Amino acid sequence: xxxxxxxxxxxxxxxxxxxxxxxxxxxxxxxxxxxxxxxxxxxxxxxxxxxxxxxxxxxxxxxxxxxxxxxxxxxxxxxxxxxxxxxxxxxxxxxxxxxxxxxxxxxxxxxxxxxxxxxxxxxxxxxxxxxxxxxxxxxxxxxxxxxxxxxxxxxxxxxxxxxxxxxxxxxxxxxxxxxxxxxxxxxxxxxxxxxxxxxxxxxxxxxxxxxxxxxxxxxxxxxxxxxxxxxxxxxxxxxxxxxxxxxxxxxxxxxxxxxxxxxxxxxxxxxxxxxxxxxxxxxxxxxxxxxxxxxxxxxxxxxxxxxx
Length: 308
What we know:
CATH superfamily: Ribonuclease Z/Hydroxyacylglutathione hydrolase-like
Distance between the termini: 49 Å
Order of helices and strands: HEEEHEHHEHEEEEEEHEHEHEHEE
CATH class: Alpha Beta
Structural class: alpha/beta
Mean pLDDT: 87
Largest sheet: 8 strands, mixed
Low-confidence stretches: 159-175, 177-189
């Protein structure tokens, strides 16, 4: 009887496992997931078995978003980006490195004297021992993750010399250095926000602009660079602070949708009424993680839609 009972239990567990695999198996869509991590940024992009994480919020709450949106049996992130070393963008990143295998780590090269930055540096060093590749971003680089996620680095615009192409060592992931860096002042003189990595993500014909916490000075440099075009989805800069998202840059990118990542009743009073007014003036649909929680867009490369 014990053997029969044990066999029955094993069979039930196998059925449950198969069911879990079926319901968590990725479909053919690409998703841009603006995780609700409170007052901070964390953006997860998934496409099939490929995952990219841009920033990781202020604490380990980012793991809840990853666990909800990545199959339970998948513990790999192809690319992790720390746009800049402020705590509300990197606080949860050491926990990400602890829980997931990271293929490539992209940073902006700035060093910040903080406990969060020191913890992240240690986590990256440990990850390198396990095979993670780390490098600094500069305008002109392009990154292809899998077959659908094409990233262009449009900031920082600093002279860094010839960038070493390392992505050829990683299956299905490529890096190209277009040697199109735009000279700007020395990186050490740029504040942490204006040193943010800014990315344009292209998924087929769908365009997404992810500017980190870039402020007005950096936005002006981007406008002058001529690297910006109309986009479908904007991650609003600096959590909706009036230091960012000027009417000038909105005139360049003209987003159809704008996502503001900020915490409920945050002490900075983000988002700014001025920024909200600017977005409305340009006809953007506004979504806020403090009001709607995690915001997800899905796309097949031609159409895109709000999933939640």
